[in-house]
Task: inverse folding
C-alpha cells in the first residue's frame, strides 16, 4: 500500500484528536471513569511500547536492558527528556563496545 | 491596543522557549528516522509525516505498522490510542483560550499539541497567546522534520553500533514522560509495572506473540487503563 495513505490516515486521526477538544469542548469532561481512563492511557501506552521493545532494538539485548534501567533511574532523579534520551544512548554505546 | 513590537516579542519568547525543545526533538526524531528507514519509508515521506504529525509515539507506531504492512483501519486505531493523551491536553488547553480569540487560531494551534509544547503553554499565566505558540512552532517543527529526514538519510551511513545506540533515544523519551508521574502517583507506577509485565507476556507466550505489535498496544492499553480507571478512579484532576 502507498506510504502516503498511511501518513494521511495518521495525520487525519491525530489532527482530529488534537483539534476537536480545542474547537468543540468548551467545558471540562465530567464523567469520572472517562477522566480517569484518559489520565492513565498515555502512561500505559508508552510503557507497553517501551518494554520489551527497547531490548529488541539494540544489537545486544543486555545493552537495551541496561539503557532501560539507566533511563528509569535518570528520569526518577528528575533528569529532563533530552538528558534521559542521551543517557540511554550512551549506556548502549559504551556497553556494546564490550559485549 | 498592542504595538507591533509587543506582538513580535511574544513570538520571540516562543522561539526562545522552543529552541531547547527543538534540540531535544532533533535527537529523538533522528532515532525515529532510523525506525522509519527500517520500515522502508523515504526521506521525503518521513519529513512530511513528521511535519504533519509532530508525534513521537504516534509516528513510531505509524512506521512500525508501515513495516508490518498493516491495514489503514489498524493504523487509524493505533494512532487514536497512542495519541489519546493529546485529547486530554487539548481539553486542558481549551480552558486557557480567550473566548475573544479568533477561531482560526484554534485550528492552527491544534496541529501542534505535543507533550513539550503543551508543557510550556500551560506554564504561562493567563490566557494562551497564539503568537507564543507560533514562535515555538517555528523552531520545533523544522527541528523535528529535519531530524527525521537525517535519520532516514544517514542511518545507513552510520556504523551499526552507533545506530544501535541512537535507536534507544526514542525509548528514553518515552521513559522521561511516564516516570515522573509514576514517581508522584502510585497508581501510575502500578500501571507501568503491569504494562511492562503484560507486554513481556505478549512477547514470550507462543499464542499471544502472534498478535501484531499494533493490536497488542491497543489491547493492553484499553484493558490496563480501563482496569485502573474502574478500580482506582481519580478523585480530582490535577493540572499536568
Result:
Amino acid at each position: 500500500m502507498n506510504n502516503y495513505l498511511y501518513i494521511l490516515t495518521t495525520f487525519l486521526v491525530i489532527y482530529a484528536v488534537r483539534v476537536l477538544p480545542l474547537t468543540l469542548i468548551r467545558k471540562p469532561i465530567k464523567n469520572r471513569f472517562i477522566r480517569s481512563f484518559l489520565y492513565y492511557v498515555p502512561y500505559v501506552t508508552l510503557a507497553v511500547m517501551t518494554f520489551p521493545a527497547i531490548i529488541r532494538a539494540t544489537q545486544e539485548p543486555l545493552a537495551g536492558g541496561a539503557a532501560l534501567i539507566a533511563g528509569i533511574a535518570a528520569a526518577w532523579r528528575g533528569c529532563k527528556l533530552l538528558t534521559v534520551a542521551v543517557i540511554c544512548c550512551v549506556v548502549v554505546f559504551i556497553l556494546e563496545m564490550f559485549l | 491596543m498592542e504595538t507591533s513590537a509587543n506582538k513580535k516579542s511574544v513570538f520571540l519568547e516562543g522561539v526562545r522557549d522552543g529552541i531547547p525543545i527543538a534540540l531535544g526533538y532533533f535527537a529523538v526524531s533522528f532515532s525515529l528516522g532510523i525506525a522509519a528507514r527500517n520500515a522502508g519509508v523515504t526521506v521525503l515521506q518521513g519529513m512530511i509525516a513528521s511535519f504533519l504529525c509532530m508525534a513521537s509515539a504516534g509516528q513510531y507506531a505509524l512506521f512500525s505498522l508501515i513495516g508490518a504492512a498493516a491495514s489503514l483501519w489498524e493504523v487509524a486505531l493505533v494512532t487514536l490510542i497512542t495519541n489519546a493523551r493529546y485529547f486530554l491536553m487539548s481539553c486542558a488547553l481549551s480552558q486557557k483560550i480567550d473566548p475573544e480569540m479568533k477561531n482560526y487560531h484554534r485550528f492552527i494551534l491544534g496541529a501542534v499539541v505535543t507533550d513539550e509544547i503543551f508543557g510550556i503553554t500551560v506554564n504561562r499565566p493567563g490566557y494562551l497567546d497564539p503568537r507564543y505558540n507560533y514562535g515555538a512552532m517555528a523552531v520545533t517543527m523544522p527541528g523535528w522534520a529535519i531530524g527525521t529526514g537525517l535519520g532516514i538519510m544517514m542511518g545507513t551511513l552510520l556504523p551499526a553500533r552507533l545506530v544501535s545506540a541512537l535507536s534507544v533515544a526514542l525509548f528514553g523519551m518515552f521513559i522521561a514522560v511516564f516516570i515522573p508521574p509514576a514517581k508522584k502517583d502510585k497508581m501510575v507506577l502500578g500501571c507501568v509495572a503491569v504494562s511492562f509485565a503484560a507486554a513481556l507476556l505478549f512477547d514470550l507466550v507462543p499464542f499471544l506473540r502472534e498478535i501484531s505489535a499494533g493490536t497488542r498496544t491497543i489491547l493492553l492499553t484499553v484493558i490496563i487503563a480501563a482496569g485502573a480507571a474502574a478500580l482506582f478512579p481519580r478523585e480530582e484532576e490535577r493540572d499536568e
In short: The mean pLDDT of chain A is 88.
